[in-house]
Amino acid sequence: MQVAKDMPSAIRMNEGGEPAPQAVYEKVRFLVSGNAVVVFTISGCCMCHVVKQLLFGLGVGPTIVELDRDAAGGEIHALLFRLHGIRRQRQPVVPAVFVGGKFLGGIETVMACHINGTLVPLLKDAGALWL
């Protein structure tokens, strides 16, 4: 499974080719670059719950941002939508998982990586797992 490009180059532009709102972009960039694993979720989303439980079960302590409980959640959600739009039009926006500062993907990608055995090495390389 191939990991997507670094977040800064992947989401700096919106669908019209214009820069994303700088404050929101910087907040997301700061979170993603400063934490081994970041998961953007919406509370009550069952697929978000599955991803969080998988990561917790593997021994990862991800940084979790619940967009419906964050003051900038709507803007971050729009930014993530643009990122997902670059990769796939039909994939849900959340959960959005970043590992080692790079956008990994949503539930489908995370589960595929887990099943094919590439998720744990990614997490180890990012410093999220030590075993």
TrEMBL record:
Localization: Cytoplasm
EC number: 1.8.1.9
One GO CC term, this protein: cytoplasm
Top-level taxon of the source organism: Eukaryota
Domain Glutaredoxin, residue spans: 37-103
GO MF, any single term: thioredoxin-disulfide reductase (NADPH) activity
Entry's transmembrane regions: none
Keywords: Cytoplasm, Oxidoreductase, Redox-active center
Record Gene3D superfamilies: Glutaredoxin
Family statement drawn from the similarity comment of this UniProt entry: Belongs to the glutaredoxin family. CC-type subfamily.
UniProt-listed PANTHER family: GLUTAREDOXIN
Annotated protein name in UniProt: Glutaredoxin
